[in-house]
Design brief:
116 residues; alpha/beta; Rossmann fold
C-alpha cells in the first residue's frame, strides 16, 4: 500500500502529458478548502479526464478523485457515482480560475459543503 492510499486525500490522477499549470491550480483549489491532494501519474491508464477521475475516486479513502488528461480537461468524481457521470468537468479551453474551482469543488464534496 502506498502512502497516498494510507492517508486521506483527494487523489489527482494525471495523464503523462497533463499540463503542469492545470495540476497546480487544481491542487491549490483543494488545499484552499483545507483538503490535501496527492498527484499520481497514470501511464497506460485511462486517457480521458473522466476515466482518470473515476479511478482516482475509487482509490481515495475520501472517495473523491480528480482526473487531468493530456488536453487539460479536468473531471471531479465521487466513488459512488456511475463511471460515466462525474460530479463536474471543465473543458480543455478552461482557464486558471476554472481549474482552481474544480479543486475547490472536490474539496467541498469531501467536506459535504454546497458546491456553489
Amino acid at each position: 500500500m502506498t502512502d497516498a492510499a494510507q492517508r486521506p486525500t483527494v487523489l489527482v490522477h494525471r495523464a503523462p502529458a497533463a499540463p503542469a499549470a492545470v495540476l497546480r491550480e487544481v491542487c491549490a483549489g483543494a488545499e484552499e478548502e483545507g483538503v490535501p491532494t496527492d498527484v499520481v501519474d497514470v501511464p497506460g491508464g485511462p486517457a480521458d479526464a473522466v476515466g482518470l477521475a473515476h479511478a482516482a475516486a475509487r482509490g481515495s479513502q475520501l472517495e473523491v478523485g480528480v482526473g487531468v488528461d493530456a488536453a487539460g480537461t479536468v473531471a471531479v468524481h465521487h466513488g459512488k457515482l456511475p463511471a460515466h457521470r462525474p460530479a463536474t468537468t471543465t473543458g480543455p479551453d478552461a482557464g486558471p480560475q476554472d481549474w482552481r474551482r474544480t479543486g475547490r469543488t472536490a474539496a467541498r464534496i469531501v467536506k459535504g459543503l454546497p458546491l456553489g
